[in-house]
Each structure stands twice: as structure tokens, then as C-alpha cells.
Design brief:
Blueprint: H1 2-31, E1 36-40, E2 46-47, E3 53-58, E4 72-76, E5 84-91, E6 94-99, E7 105-114, E8 120-129, H2 156-162, H3 176-206
Parallel strand pairs: 2-8
Antiparallel strand pairs: 1-3, 3-6, 4-7, 5-6, 7-8
């Protein structure tokens, strides 16, 4: 009797373990977040016309609430200009937004939404637009004119001074009165010497 009870308990334990294992295996995929399945334009693709709509398709329909703006798609062109209008349409597992024409070059797509299990998911990708009718951003032309540094450019005053002939310096006449006085003294002495010499000659002639 005791052996039968032990066998029954063993079978019950094995059945319970198997049921729990099946429950865990079955719950695994359900707990996985939704994933991005495809995009339009395709990731890393090069298209010859600017898209008017960017579309992303998920593995499951996302949680949708227009009042909360749960889904966001932002599209920018090679100049950084935002081309998306800010409105996202949710149709089943697909979310999309309208896009205005932009410049040729890489387009960057940033997206965010809420998975069907309530968890937020997001990502980004890029594609390239090479539309012959669109304008490609031109590189700024290189300047060929050499600018003169402000310090090297002559001022109007300097230019006028360069064109004016410098005047000769005036003679220093601060010693003029002294020279005149010395000259007068010398003339007086010479006059006295001549007068004395003349008197001596006259006296010698009379004697």
C-alpha cells in the first residue's frame, strides 16, 4: 500500500513539473517585445525620388492612443531639416508619417512606439535619396582673395603723412644773443688796440 502511494505521488509530481515546463515555454514568445519587420523606403536603400511617406511595419500591432501620441516618427534630410509633419498613422502593425521633399543625400528616420505588451520600443535607420530633379547641397566656394590684416592696412592719417615732404628742422638760435655780445666785445678790443697803436705812431713822429 505504501509503495502504491509513493508511485502515485511520483507520477503526480512529474505531471505537475511537465505542466509548469509547458507553461513557461508557451509564455516565452508572448513576453517578447514586438520587433520591426520592414520599412519603406528600405533600410540603407538608395532611391531616385524623395519619398512622400515613411512606413514601418512591426511584428504585432502597437498600443495605439492618439490622445497620448504613443507613436513618433521623425525624418530629417542631409541638412538636418525635419521633413516629417509630426502626425503618425497606425494601421494594424504599420505606423507611417507624411514626409515633405528634402535635399539629396542621406535621410535619417527615428521612430518610437509602444509594444503590444505595453513596453516602449524604438530605433533608427537611414536611406539615401538621389533625385536628379532635387537640389544637392553645394559646398561653400573657396575664397581666392587674400584679405589684408587690419594691422597691415595703412590708416588715412598714415597715408597722408607718407605723401607729405618732411620740413627741414629750424636752426637752433637760442645762443644768438650770447654770440652777438661776444662779437661786440671782440670788436671793441680790436678798436682799442688800433687806437693805441695809432697814438704811439703819432707820438713817435712828433718826437
Amino acid at each position: 500500500m505504501t509503495v502504491r502511494k509513493k508511485n502515485a505521488r511520483s507520477r503526480a509530481g512529474l505531471a505537475l513539473a511537465g505542466a509548469l515546463l509547458l507553461a513557461v515555454i508557451g509564455a516565452g514568445p508572448a513576453q517578447a517585445h514586438d520587433a520591426l519587420q520592414s520599412t519603406s523606403p528600405d533600410r540603407d536603400a538608395t532611391v531616385t525620388a524623395a519619398p512622400d511617406t515613411v512606413t514601418l511595419t512591426l511584428s504585432e500591432p502597437p498600443t495605439d492612443s492618439e490622445s497620448l501620441n504613443l507613436s513618433v516618427i521623425t525624418v530629417t534630410d542631409s541638412t538636418g531639416k525635419t521633413l516629417s509633419d509630426g502626425n503618425v498613422t497606425v494601421t494594424g502593425p504599420t505606423i507611417s508619417t507624411r514626409v515633405a521633399p528634402g535635399s539629396n543625400g542621406p535621410y535619417t528616420v527615428l521612430w518610437r512606439t509602444v509594444s503590444s505588451d505595453g513596453h516602449p520600443i524604438e530605433g533608427n535607420y537611414s536611406c539615401t535619396v538621389q533625385d536628379p530633379a532635387a537640389v544637392t547641397p553645394a559646398a561653400p566656394p573657396a575664397s581666392t582673395t587674400e584679405s589684408v590684416p587690419p594691422s597691415a592696412a595703412p590708416s588715412p592719417t598714415q597715408s597722408a603723412a607718407a605723401n607729405t615732404v618732411p620740413k627741414a628742422p629750424r636752426p637752433d638760435d637760442s645762443n644768438g644773443p650770447l654770440v652777438v655780445g661776444i662779437g661786440a666785445v671782440i670788436i671793441a678790443i680790436l678798436g682799442g688796440i688800433l687806437y693805441l697803436a695809432r697814438r704811439r705812431r703819432e707820438q713817435t713822429g712828433n718826437g
